[in-house]
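Input sequence (274 aa), recorded before submission:
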Amino acid sequence: MESTADLERRATDLVRYALACHAAGKAMRREDIRTHVLSGAGARGFKPIMDRATSLLEQSFGLRIIPLPVHERRGGSVEVKDSQQNKVTNKWVLQSTLPDSARARLELEQSEDEKATLGFAATVLSLIFVNNMSISNDQLVLYVRKLGPPACILPASEADSVSTSHGVTDAQLESAAQAAIVSLVKQGYLDKVSAQGSTARHTSGETQASQQPGDSNEPDPGQEYTWGPQAKVRFQQLDMTRFIAAVTGQECTHEFIKAVSRAYGQNIANTESR
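Predicted structure, token format:
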């Protein structure tokens, strides 16, 4: 059994690890926590250390550790979700515990680059949201090209090439789109899944990007993309539905929510109507 001092030390180590993963836009995986933070703690020590780390994060940073939600591709069926609810959680992320008013004030203090990145990411994620939470590489590149990624998420060379006043070639647009996708993957907004057998990947809660963090993030025509860990925490279903309504100039009515639910592949609860 862990002594109080050992529990506090391991919890503090877990807080540092959680903050590092959060800053990198990555989820914490159970096996990585055991290997890098809780080595030798034993299975029984996992929960009390996790609980204490969560308490420290809430007290000092206004953050809490939550299990990473998993969304399956269902091909129109909503039955798979229930079969996943009893599975052991293997991945976690941090989420703010601050009230909406405080979060709104913090968002107002964001830089222009941060606002541009978040707005672009939300738009890309909305396209995936209404495509049953999965999109092919070719489709994504096409959408990103049409949207025009903000220069702040591109490498300097790419940003310069698409901002030139002498015209932009098709190859430059393609390259900028690919670079923008890589940036969203690195920031945790997008996750790569195999186009073949993607449902099986999702069922295990592991994607290629999270299973093999050392692999290249370069877009691959054989890849599909879904929401990454940062997206799943930042954007709730109803919030994303409201965003889609706003950018399309529509009212977020009950009928609109039902229409988006069909594209999303799962009923979206309008909690405000209850």
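Checked by second reader. The first strand starts at residue 28 and ends at 29.
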